[in-house]
Amino acid sequence: MVGTRTVLITGGAGGIGRFLAEAFRSAGDTVVLADLPSSRLTEVGEELGVATVPLDITDQQAVAAAVEAVQAEHGPIGALVNNAGILHLHGDVLSLPVADYETTIRVNILGTFTVTQAVAKAMIASGTRGAVVNISSIGGRQPTPGMGAYETSKAAVDAQTRWAAIELAAHGIRVNAVAPGPVDTPMMKMGMPEGSPMREAWLSRIPLKQMADPAQVASAAVFLASDGAADITGVSLPVDGGQLLA
């Protein structure tokens, strides 16, 4: 039930993380933001009036300790949003450094799995019929040259979503994903300003001619974690303006 839960959101210091925090807080949930230790994480938590926890999602012991600490202070985790991930390591199949590929896989796939496993165990132990929402990408289904490492990782996140959904269903835990197209975060607006050739090239691929609004991505996550989606599990919901149709 939305409004009575503790919601843990990873990648909380980033652009989409902030919108997720605002959306779940507006629904009445207790929000805890997790991200790598930084002044930015502290600032976002203070600005929004939500709790924060510094966390490296690739560190299994740190994840287990963070989940325990969150539950000790805020009660059982009722929903997890796996938003943490990296996008910036690009390169084509002939030139991408193996180390960059490995880093992307480690954060986007192994990190998502590590947090999901720890939170699912905690939900089962507390008898919580919870929800997990992974932030994926339509890139997992539609390739863009130079972005293969990221897109491979998001295809794996979609597969992991289905895997966790079918195995955790017996415990009443639903697992879904939101798969945005390009998200119009402040950083995206800086890199692709209105009217720029790069922005127009992206928009030409999108039937609705608009990039994903981060608030709409957050709304989709809130829905999938809510009682309104009580019979939905194992789904990766595109929020892409129809880009997968093109």
From TrEMBL:
Gene3D superfamilies: NAD(P)-binding Rossmann-like Domain. The keyword Oxidoreductase applies. It holds the Pfam family adh_short_C2. Residues 5-181 form the Ketoreductase domain. Coiled coil: none annotated. InterPro entries: KR_dom (IPR057326), NAD(P)-bd_dom_sf (IPR036291), SDR_fam (IPR002347). Keywords: Oxidoreductase. GO terms for molecular function: oxidoreductase activity, acting on the CH-OH group of donors, NAD or NADP as acceptor. The keyword S-adenosyl-L-methionine does not apply. Belongs to the short-chain dehydrogenases/reductases (SDR) family. This is SDR family oxidoreductase.
